Automatic annotation (TrEMBL):
<dbReference type="InterPro" id="IPR036188">
    <property type="entry name" value="FAD/NAD-bd_sf"/>
</dbReference>
<feature type="binding site">
    <location>
        <position position="44"/>
    </location>
    <ligand>
        <name>FAD</name>
    </ligand>
</feature>
<dbReference type="GO" id="GO:0005739">
    <property type="term" value="C:mitochondrion"/>
</dbReference>
<feature type="binding site">
    <location>
        <begin position="210"/>
        <end position="211"/>
    </location>
    <ligand>
        <name>NADP(+)</name>
    </ligand>
</feature>
<keyword id="KW-0285">Flavoprotein</keyword>
<feature type="binding site">
    <location>
        <position position="387"/>
    </location>
    <ligand>
        <name>FAD</name>
    </ligand>
</feature>
<feature type="binding site">
    <location>
        <position position="36"/>
    </location>
    <ligand>
        <name>FAD</name>
    </ligand>
</feature>
<feature type="binding site">
    <location>
        <position position="11"/>
    </location>
    <ligand>
        <name>FAD</name>
    </ligand>
</feature>
<dbReference type="InterPro" id="IPR021163">
    <property type="entry name" value="Ferredox_Rdtase_adrenod"/>
</dbReference>
<protein>
    <recommendedName>
        <fullName>NADPH:adrenodoxin oxidoreductase, mitochondrial</fullName>
        <ecNumber>1.18.1.6</ecNumber>
    </recommendedName>
</protein>
<feature type="region of interest" description="Disordered">
    <location>
        <begin position="491"/>
        <end position="512"/>
    </location>
</feature>
<keyword id="KW-0274">FAD</keyword>
<feature type="binding site">
    <location>
        <begin position="166"/>
        <end position="169"/>
    </location>
    <ligand>
        <name>NADP(+)</name>
    </ligand>
</feature>
<comment type="similarity">
    <text>Belongs to the ferredoxin--NADP reductase type 1 family.</text>
</comment>
<keyword id="KW-0496">Mitochondrion</keyword>
<keyword id="KW-0521">NADP</keyword>
<dbReference type="GO" id="GO:0016491">
    <property type="term" value="F:oxidoreductase activity"/>
</dbReference>
């Protein structure tokens, strides 16, 4: 049996794992082809999870073991961007028609960018937290972006930053801005970002949410981590909103357990005195985090002083017919003006799923419409897992449960199809050429698993030289060279291109 998996993030690997471990599929799986548009695997674990959370990133060890163990079955094709040129019909034919292949699993995450505020001045004043995260994680498409600096390229100390959003990504951004440079230096953080963050020297952070604190979507653990990060942090909570009267008979929805726990953390640490490590009052000037609730940015201006001025309107909060808290700006209220350094105002209000190949999009849930993982409205065996399946929320562990459900659905569909046709969808009757042969014939540079292991070894080696977990390779071209067996020295000599240079070689668009 042959299946295809598109995307080598958590959902892709957990799908592979669930397929390989499913009792009914053992001894039947002949080939699992995994396509990844980047030359390297692991999706947001490599390029989203914050560098100061190395314990989270260690989940990749189990996927590496999986690939080692099943290398005869699972093939990794990195630097292969599956897109419009490789139509869904072609993919379905190869992997999901029940004859040549038994199933196609789409695990591409949320590729539609990030949600925008849609306010005047958003460009150029407000940066995307998604891009900032990719930058400090050394993503090859973002490694040469500039953040935290004024127009002249200088990063001034005593930085003031704004983060718009009340989720865990917003907390990651806040923590990275405040994290001790020495702590970041030993991680896999992009060294350019470590230097810029140190030079920025965040002194004041404003975290803005449009609703009240009990409706924030962050979790207690991440909030506690931020609020206990350093002894010189001081927190001020501003509640800018007013509440509309609750209509008689309407039952307001209660905050979830997660929301209640996060609220307890906020209450516990906010307003606490600034205490140093030995318990006396700190002598240093405290770094301050302002939590603003019930406030919506309505306009952003770049002043002559090279600072961003964010004009915010207080909100009126009200319960909708389902008892959920909603908000609207109060037209006649005095606006709140918050200023920050240029390049340090971030929106972090969510990621967006895009529907490739005209797959059915559920725009309310921000995911592909599916039944337990099977894409609705298609004849063929096409499945989704991860953020593409349930929307861009939740943690890595959710993608495991999710992939297991998708694979269970796949097996159930397979059973049913085989009963109906009295034939096994094993793909063994096919004489289709191997994917690598097709890619090679077409002259596409792809990275196989051994190629990734070479990149990985080089990154770890470079990390050891400077006492860090790893130093990531920052360009696709360097990755391809290393994957192909060249040393970095060979590469620099042959191409005249140093690791600091960032040339982008676009991934192969596969059409076969
Ligand atoms: C900033 C941030 C921090 C996070 N921190 C944590 C944390 O600390 N702990 C935690 O548990 N969870 C964390 N998460 C959540 C976690 O990262 C996600 O739950 C998980 O990565 C979702 O997995 P996925 O495979 O669906 O998507 P992704 O991780 O996005 O993987 C999708 C993969 O598909 C590839 N791809 C996309 N399109 C194509 C294409 N056309 N062809 C080929 N390949 C393609 C992408 O390059 C990518 O590698 C964080 C998320 C973010 C955004």
């Amino acid at each position: 049996m042959r299946v295809g998996v598109v995307g080598a993030g958590p959902a892709g690997f957990y799908t592979v794992q669930s397929l390989l471990r499913h009792a009914e599929l053992q001894h039947r799986l002949r080939r699992i082809d995994v396509f990844e548009s980047l030359p390297v695997p692991f999706g947001l674990v490599r390029y989203g999870v914050a560098p100061d959370h190395p314990e989270v990133k260690r989940v990749t060890n189990s996927w590496t073991q999986l690939m080692d163990r099943y290398r005869a079955i699972v093939r990794f094709y990195g630097n292969v961007h599956v897109n419009g040129r490789l139509s869904l019909d072609l993919l379905k034919k190869r992997y999901a028609d029940g004859v040549q292949g038994a199933g196609l699993f789409l695990c591409m995450g949320a590729q539609g960018g990030d949600r925008k505020l849609g306010i005047p001045g958003e460009t150029p004043c407000i940066e995307s937290a998604r891009a900032f995260v990719a930058w400090y994680n050394g993503h090859p498409d973002y490694a040469d972006r500039v953040f935290l600096s004024q127009r002249d390229g200088c990063v001034a100390g005593g930085g003031e930053a704004v983060i718009i959003g009340n989720g865990n990504v917003a907390l990651d951004v806040a923590r990275m801005l405040l994290q001790a440079p020495a702590r970041l230096h030993v991680t896999d953080c992009n060294p350019v970002a470590v230097d810029a963050l140190a030079a920025f020297g965040a002194q004041t952070l404003h975290i803005i949410g449009r609703r009240d604190a009990s409706n924030a979507s962050w979790t207690a653990r991440e909030l506690r981590e931020l609020m206990t990060l350093a002894p010189d942090l001081k927190f001020i909570v501003h509640e800018a909103m007013r509440w509309a009267p609750t209509p008689p008979g309407l039952q307001p929805a209660q905050p979830s357990r997660t929301q209640r726990r996060a609220l307890e953390v906020l209450r516990r640490y906010a307003g606490s005195a600034v205490i140093d490590e030995v318990g006396t009052r700190a002598q240093v000037t405290p770094r301050t985090i302002h939590f603003w609730f019930g406030l919506s940015p309505v306009r952003a201006l770049l002043g002559d002083d090279q600072r961003v001025h964010l004009i915010c309107a207080p909100n009126e909060l009200f319960y909708d017919s389902l008892g959920q808290v909603q908000c609207r700006t109060i037209q006649d209220a005095e606006p709140v003006r918050i200023t920050a350094s240029a390049g340090a105002v971030f929106r972090s209000i969510g990621y967006v799923v895009s529907a490739p190949w005209g797959l059915p999009l559920d725009s309310n849930q921000n995911c592909i419409r599916n039944n337990a993982g099977r894409v609705v409205g298609l004849e063929d065996a096409v499945y989704v897992a991860g953020w593409l399946k349930h929307g861009p929320r939740g943690v890595i562990a959710n993608t495991l449960v999710d992939a297991q459900e998708t694979v269970a659905q796949f097996v159930s569909d397979l059973r049913q199809a085989e009963r109906a046709t009295q034939a096994r969808a094993d793909g063994s009757r096919t004489h289709e050429p191997e994917v690598e042969d097709l890619l090679k014939q077409a002259g596409h540079s792809f990275v196989d698993w051994d190629g990734w292991l070479r990149i990985d070894a080089e990154e770890q080696h470079r990390g050891r030289l400077c006492g860090a977990d790893r130093r990531k390779i920052l360009t696709r071209s360097d990755m391809l060279r290393l994957a192909g067996g060249a040393s970095v020295a060979d590469y620099q000599q042959n191409s005249g291109e140093g690791l600091g240079n960032r040339s982008h070689r676009t991934p192969a668009d596969v059409a076969f």
